[in-house]
């Protein structure tokens, strides 16, 4: 019997694409023609078929292979899940994999802080090494290889940090879909929102909203409770942001996590509406995406001839050909090599500049270009990530809007056009006498470090942005740094120069970084610390250099920072407001931190849970930098090769650097660009506790909700934002004046000089993390404590 989908979904499902190298827009199904469901109109009886196999009973992978070989590309979700769950546990391989992950994940910079979290942290403590050991000791109890890999992946999800990713082969083969999106819509932007299907929310913007019935239950549960279980499989710092990622993004042009699932959510989805009607949607699966450098892709028919059961599926797809090491083949085993050319993966993701088009995990369901439904911009870059607008209407004549949906312009690999677009917008705003500015950062998952720094400099030409960070000073990091430093010192005049090492080993090129006080480091010993914080060791706090010099490893070729301190700011800080949705992270979070703590700019946040409470404006990753995990074994191999010609090789024997170079299983299963670690923590200027910003709670100054009209029309949302910024009565009740917000008393550090007493210093192990005698070193809210881990475990068990 064929699986069917309601015609309500015909337009969106038939045209749905899941591409990681393009924005997730619906191309062939125009938004305005999407069917909707009202309380007066029943669902259509037209159907869209999902194929089912006709043979091979009892072997779900053989049944799935039959459909693939027949040319199908949409499959029953239950069949796909049963196939994946029939793959036998690779006990020997997984045992080795787990041991190797313990070595590789020492590079995760927040590992120590996750073990001992401050009171401001809502997700519960997480001991990464202990969790890996627990999985290893229970390998006999897992139902399948898929279950083992999902358990490992769950460790990264529980971190809440989207810079920390584990996406091995078997979890990447398919993505599960519902084919229906949901959205939370408020009557007036202040009252608590109600849940609607995406198509209803779209129709409500131009129709009588009373005709549409809200969602009351999903799969037999209270709708909001069910969505929380879905949200807790998303990788953001708090539940409000995770919930925001579940909803369909504004305008309905891309997909939320309710529709494109992070995990298997059952064979079907039943939605019951408050008016008593209901609808059932068959869940389905589509092929996922292999590495950009894979030898093939999961959807290539030729591979499926050999799939007869779960064991053969493992043999075909889990041997490194699809998600394996993208770096290893770049490494030369010739010990006489003196080439310091960066490997491909380093150029793509680890370097602070953006030189490729690889989509990282936080981009997989998030569009990274400005939607076509936005109004005509005054100016826009060709990559469609930054654009400027002028509001119209009474009371908004002097309001300009700068939309930055990403700091990663795909067609602008060195960032010059992004920079020029901002400059042109600011010039036109000045010419048109615009004095007020809304900076829309919704959906911004980060990007190029140099662009967020440059944007701040263009907005505040007389000020210098702050980029305080530190590395985790673990044995592997220090071992590589010691070797680099000694090879340079002992081989002066040879090919082993600082310039060469700054290219391939720039993490350890201390001479290109500045201290927290803005001075260049003079030695490796000054740089490496260690500073003891919260039971872990870190390097001395460092900053990126903003000098426009050839040796600046931060700058892309041809890019120079805006550097005209004679100019006045185009807008006064008191007349600027940031608009966020909780999803702002990485470079976006760093930009928002500078705007708040240096310039004193306030934030209005939209969305989140239906609560009369504050909400964080920034709850994406707040880490300083992310790298492809597979690069570190490659670096260790190259360093050992270089050491042989520099008479230093013996110093690396019997060290963790040697262990790192010998990793194998993890590079087979999860060695590509989707598997990443966060290598640096980002710190607040003036916070002497050294608490990473991801563990600092920061409420926005005001919260609002989407109405049907402002969800579809960004101009209306920008006007709503400006009104709320100027009048607390237009904010959600109870959302303003939290002590961590500027409106609640937070005192920005400002652009003044950093003194010794403002820098992190080693703390006694008995001191509580985040504890300081200074005000505003951290927020003081605690939400649901350690229940987060339990919620995820329950959610996964339900799927």
UniProtKB/TrEMBL annotation:
One of its GO terms (biological process) is proteolysis. Residues 176-288 form the CPAF-like PDZ domain. This is Uncharacterized protein. It comes from Aaosphaeria arxii CBS 175.79. Residues 33-57, 736-778 are annotated as: Disordered. Transmembrane segments: none annotated. Keywords: Signal. Residues 35-57, 762-778 have a biased composition (Polar residues). Residues 1-16 form the signal peptide. SUPFAM superfamilies: ClpP/crotonase.
